[in-house]
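TL;DR need structure tokens for one chain.
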Amino acid sequence: MEEIKKWNLIVSNLLKDIEVKKYYYQGTGSFINDTLQVFTGNMKMNEHMYVYWHELIMRMHYSSVTCLMRNSKWLSGIVNSIENNNYILFAASMRGFFESMVDTTYSIATKGSEVAMNFMNINLSLTKQMSKNFMAGKFEEDLIHFGYASKESFKKDKDPNHKPKLMRDYISDFDLPGSEMRHEFYSELCEITHPAANSVNCFSKEIIIDSRKSYLITDDTRDNELIREFCNKYNVLIEILLKLSVSIPVINLKVINLLECEDLYSPSIENSFINKYIEEGPAWKDILVLIGGNEDDGSSH
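>> reply
TL;DR here they are.
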């Protein structure tokens, strides 16, 4: 439980210092119009690619910062529930945090490495030097999904990127080393937050008289015990979630800081307490290798 408090403090400190940015996006109609302008010779391809990629990096920045914000709220709820011995609140907040993280890993976990693999061409686009049509494909689709997926949005726009996935699909995709108990983890949380047996059993205790007789009494003092049991049972998975809640968005923001995109530069990330931890990790080192290789051969993967 101390690990949860530690990572909650890390996220809170990151958000306290992070710079506020302005995000602005073209509508679909404007993008199609620009594309037509390029093909009719009224707009240069390098201008079109600048607008397109600058908007995508803005989406990546927005997704990363709002990911931190959302995680911070759920983690605050978990910490509050621990400090106030509230098992129901703990289950609801932990469930929300888990749902947030499986969505995060599905939509934006690989964005830093995807930018690294195409680093040279993205920088050419951001400096108005890209003279060919260089589209993002799934990179763009995932960012739109993260920001817009909802039943109402999909019903209105019929955009497949707005269609929400089922939670069981997000959870199945969250197939990382140490996450083998993720389905059981989520099921147990739902049993507490839904009006199911465990949502009332947590308020009772069995008194055993002998091998044939026992009775129940209501007991509103077991919260701390139940919270500790849950955290101990799923400590490996919880630790993975806590680390990813910071590393995914921070790595994305650090990659953006390396791009020729001054208006989205976030110096607070480089000066943060967690920066050293990120830079010493294998994920960041792999990204630097990808960027170096991409700059050397000028290829787009």
